[in-house]
Specification:
homodimer, BirA Bifunctional Protein, domain 2, Rossmann fold, Translation Initiation Factor IF3, eight-stranded mixed sheet, five-stranded mixed sheet, about 25% strand, globular
Chain lengths: ~500, ~500
C-alpha cells in the first residue's frame, strides 16, 4: 500500500499526473493547455528563483523587464534570417470587446494595425534594445536577465513539462568578440549544472546539442540533461552561443577601441518551471514527492497529534515553541523553513498530505513527546522500513541542533540515489547501430531503458537527417555530446567511419 | 544648475519623463504603450516585491500562479453580472503565424474557437477555481496572492503610471461571512498604508471610494491616496470587498457547519509598478530621484576617484574593503546593499549618474581619503547646501558603524518632508461649492493646488452623477472618504443638505 493510487512501475505517465495532483503542485486550468500552479509547486519555484537569481546576479547580470507583447514585424524579421523558426504563437489581434447581438466578441473596429505576438522567447525585442544601447566597446559586455511568463502553443501538454504558458528566466548577453560569447555560454551552462546538482539534487550531463537540435539561429547550443526514473531524458536547461547571427538581423554594432565598427556576439540561456517536472520524476516515489530540502517551501512540518481534548492547546503551544526553535536554526544559507499544520482535519490525514507533498522532515508530536521533551519525526527520503513508515525520536534539543546536519544529509541522499541511478543506466559498448536496435528495439514500452553512450563521426546535413530518422524509428533522440569526452574514439555507430565524438542517445520528454 | 534639464517648477510632466529617463528607471518600448523596466527601476520593484510578499505571507496568504490568458466566456459571464465592466482588453484570436504571399500573418486556419483575453485582473479565473476548491466551511477562509503581469489597453500611457502592460500583485480571498470579508478588506488596506509609509516613505490617506469609483461589482472599494509634488493625487493601492456578487456569478458556495449551503464572501486587493511612479513624484527633485533607502537597489554607492594612474589599483582595493565592511552591516532587516562603480567612465560623470538615480549615500573616495582612512560622501536627500553639492567626511569606521542609523535617518527625512507637504496642502473650510470654484477655478494649470477636504451628504445615483460632473468641470475627482472622520459634520458643499461624511477632492493621475 502506498500513498499514491498508481505506482511508477504500473504506469509512469499516470503516476506523474497523480503526483502533480496529490502533492498539490498544480492543476489543469480552464484555459486550454495552461495550468494553475498551487502553493507547494509555486513555493518550489520561488526557492528556485531566489537561488538562481543570486547566482545570475553574482555573474554580473542585471534584471530587466521587457514587454510580453512583441510586434509581429520583429518576429517576421527574425523569421527571414532564421530557418526553422517556430510559428506556433499566440497572436493578439484586437484591443476591445463589444457586445454584438448580445454576444461579447472582439470588436471589429478595434483590430490592431499590427498584430502582437505573446513572447515565445525574447531575443527579438531584447536584441532591438541592444541595438540602441550598444554604441561603443565600453558598453560591452552587456548582460541582462528577465524573469517572465512565456507562451508557446503546444498541442500536447503535460503539467510543468510542456504547457502553453510557463514561467522562466532568460539571460541575454552581448559581447565584443567570440571569446566573450563562448565564455558566457559556458558560464551559464556550468551555472545550470551546479544549480541542478546542488540545489535540486538533479544529477545532469552537460554537453553540446547536435546541429539539428540547436536553437534556430544559434552557432552552438548546450544543454543539461537529467535522467528521469523511467529512463527518459529531460532537457533541464539550455545555453546558446548566437554568434553574430542575431546581431546581424538586429543591427547590434559597436565602435571598437580602434574606431572601427564591429558586430556584437550574443548569447541567451534559460531554465523554466520544467525543472519542477524534473524534480518530480527524479525524486518522487510511490508515496508522492520527495522535495529536496534546499527548495522545499517547508523543510520541517510539525503535525500536532490533537485529539479534540482540552490538552490540545498545550500540545499546540509545545509545537509552536518547537517551530520557533527550529526557525532559529540556519541551513543552506537561510533560516530553516518550518510550518505547524493546525488545519482542522485528522492528524493522520495531515501526515499523509505532507508525505505526498514530500516535506523533507515530518514531525508528529503527541502528548508523550511533549511530556518527555521529545520530537518524533519521519525522514521523507527514507520513509519506510520493511514497507512501513518508520519514525525516529530524539530529544528536542538534539533534534533542533541536528537540523543543519540532517537537512543537508537528506539533500545529499536524494542526490546520491539519483546519481547512482543515472550512472548505472548510461550504457556504452554499442559497436554498431544494430546493437542499439537490439537494446532499444524490443519491448519498447515495458522495460526500463537508460541512455546509450555512442561514438559517432558527427555527420552534418542530409547524413545527419538520416541518423535522426534511424533513431526516431527507435523513439530515440540525440541528447548531447557531453563536455567530458574520452581520449580516443572507436567507429561511428551510424556510418562505421572513424568517430570524433561521444554522444548520448535516449528517449526524451 | 541642476542635474535634470527641466525642473519641477518649469514643467512637471516633462520633469517626470526626464527623471524616468535620466535615472535610468525605464524607457518606452517598440510595443505601443509598453515600457522596458531597467535595472534601477526593476531593482526598486524587486525590493517592493520582497517586502510586500513577506507581509502578504505573514497575513496567511499563499502564492499561486494562474493563467494569463482567460477564456472569453469567463469575461462574458462577468460582464453579464457587472455593470461598468471595462471592455478595453487585448484579445488573442490565433495560435499560429503563416507566410501568406511572403508576408507573415495570423494563419486563418489557426483561429481559436474561443478567443482568449489577456488578464486585466484575475477575479474571473480565480473565482472559477474558488468554486471548485471551496466545498465546506473548513476550506474558508481561502486566501491567495499572485504576482503577475497585467494588460489593459490604455490609450494615453505614461511610464509606471499607466501602461498597456504592468506588473502587480493581486490578493484574492474567500470568507464564510461578511465580517470575514470586511476584516480582510481592511487588513489589506492597512497593510498597504503601512507599507507605503514605512517602506516607500509615501504618506497616504486611507479611505473609502465613493460609489461611482468602486471596482465594478464591489460592495465597497478602499484606497490609499498619495500627494504628488504637483498637488495631484495618486491612487497607490486598492482593496475591495466584493460581497457575494462574484460568488453568485461564479457559484462559490460552501456547506456551513449546520449543513446548509451558503454563498462565500470574497475580496480582492492590489498594488502595482505604479507605486514606482508615486515614489518618483514624491521624492524626486531637480537633480533626479531620491530613492528611499528601504527600496534602493544600492543603498551605498562607492565611486573610486581614479585618475588613470598606477595608484588607481590601490584606491580600488581600498574601495572594495570599504564595500565589504559596509555589506557586513545590517539595516532594515537585511545586509546593507553596496556597490562599487568601476565602470570605465569619468568619476564626476559617475557621481551625477548616481545622483540622478538617487542612491541614498554616494561615496567619493580619493587618494586623500585612502591615506587618512576616511570616507567622503553625499547624502542624496540633502545633496545641496546653498545650491552646491555638499559632502561630509568621516573616519571609515565611524561611517561604517553609523550606517544603521544614517540610512533610517534618510528614510525618515524623506517621509517627514513628504508628510509635511501633504499635511500642509490638504485644505478645509470650504463652505459651499463656490468656494471650491474660487480655489480651483482660477489659474488652474499655473498654480500649485493641493487637496480639498469637504463635507458632503453622500449622494447616490443621479445626484452623485451631478456632483461628479460639477467636479469634473474643475478637473477634480473625489479621492476617498478618509477612515479618520471628524465627530460632527457641517453642510454638504454640493447640496447644502446636512453632511454625513468628509471626503477628499483633488486632481489626480
Amino acid at each position: 500500500m502506498h500513498a499514491l493510487k498508481v505506482t511508477r512501475a504500473e504506469d509512469f505517465p499516470e503516476w506523474y499526473q497523480a503526483i502533480v495532483r496529490e502533492a498539490d503542485l498544480a492543476e489543469l486550468s480552464p484555459t486550454r493547455g495552461c495550468m494553475i500552479i498551487k502553493p507547494w509547486g509555486y513555493g518550489i519555484w520561488e526557492r528556485i528563483q531566489d537561488e538562481m537569481d543570486r547566482r545570475i546576479k553574482a555573474s554580473g547580470c542585471e534584471n530587466y523587464y521587457f514587454p510580453m507583447m512583441i510586434p509581429l514585424s520583429f518576429i517576421a524579421k527574425e523569421a527571414e534570417h532564421v530557418e526553422g523558426f517556430a510559428k506556433e504563437m499566440a497572436v493578439v489581434t484586437h484591443h476591445r470587446l463589444k457586445a454584438i447581438d448580445g454576444v461579447l466578441k472582439p470588436d471589429p473596429e478595434a483590430e490592431l494595425a499590427e498584430p502582437l505576438i505573446l513572447r515565445p522567447t525574447s531575443e527579438t525585442i531584447i536584441g532591438d534594445a541592444f541595438s540602441r544601447w550598444v554604441k561603443s566597446y565600453r558598453d560591452l559586455p552587456l548582460k541582462l536577465n528577465q524573469w517572465a511568463n512565456i507562451v508557446r502553443w503546444e498541442m500536447r501538454t503535460r503539467m510543468f513539462l510542456r504547457t502553453a504558458e510557463f514561467l522562466w528566466q532568460e539571460g541575454h548577453t552581448a559581447h565584443a568578440d567570440e571569446a566573450g560569447a563562448v565564455e558566457e555560454t559556458m558560464r551559464a551552462l556550468e551555472m545550470y549544472r551546479s544549480f541542478a546538482e546542488e540545489v535540486l539534487a538533479l544529477p545532469v550531463i552537460a554537453g553540446e546539442k547536435p546541429e539539428h537540435e540547436r536553437f534556430p539561429g544559434a552557432v552552438s547550443t548546450f544543454s543539461i540533461e537529467a535522467m528521469m526514473q523511467d529512463g527518459k531524458a529531460l532537457q533541464a536547461g539550455t545555453s546558446h552561443n548566437l554568434g553574430t547571427h542575431f546581431a546581424e538581423a538586429q543591427n547590434i554594432r559597436y565602435q571598437d577601441s580602434g574606431g572601427g565598427i564591429s558586430l556584437a556576439h550574443t548569447t541567451s540561456w534559460g531554465v523554466s518551471t520544467r525543472l519542477i517536472g524534473g524534480v518530480i520524476m527524479t525524486h518522487g516515489d510511490d508515496d508522492g514527492l520527495r522535495t529536496p530540502p534546499a527548495v522545499a517551501p517547508h523543510q520541517v512540518v510539525i503535525v500536532p497529534m490533537v485529539r479534540g481534548k482540552p490538552e490540545d492547546a498545550q500540545l499546540i503551544a509545545y509545537c509552536d515553541v518547537l517551530a520557533q526553535e527550529t526557525a532559529s536554526r540556519q541551513c543552506f544559507g537561510s533560516r530553516v523553513r518550518v510550518h505547524v499544520d493546525k488545519k482542522d482535519s485528522r492528524p493522520a490525514d495531515k501526515r499523509w498530505d505532507w508525505v505526498r507533498r514530500g516535506a523533507p522532515i515530518i514531525c508528529e508530536i503527541g502528548p508523550r513527546d511533549m511530556a518527555a521533551d521529545k520530537v518524533t519525526f519521519f525522514r521523507r527520503d527514507r520513509l519506510r522500513v520493511d514497507g512501513r513508515p518508520s519514525a525516529a525520536t530524539l530529544d528536542q534539543a538534539e533534534f533542533v541542533l541536528g537540523l543543519d546536519r540532517l537537512l543537508p544529509e537528506i539533500q545529499n541522499a536524494l542526490f546520491a540515489e539519483a546519481k547512482h541511478r543515472m550512472e548505472s543506466n548510461i550504457r556504452g559498448g554499442f559497436a554498431a547501430f544494430s546493437d542499439l536496435e537490439d537494446y532499444f528495439g524490443e519491448d519498447q514500452d515495458s522495460q526500463f531503458k537508460g541512455w546509450a553512450r555512442v561514438h559517432w563521426s558527427r555527420p552534418s546535413g542530409k547524413a545527419l537527417d538520416e541518423v535522426e530518422a534511424r533513431l526516431k524509428a527507435l523513439k530515440l533522440t540525440i541528447r548531447n555530446a557531453p563536455l567530458q569526452q574520452p581520449n580516443t574514439f572507436g567507429k561511428c555507430v551510424f556510418s562505421g567511419a572513424p568517430a570524433v565524438e561521444e554522444i548520448l542517445v535516449a528517449r526524451a520528454y
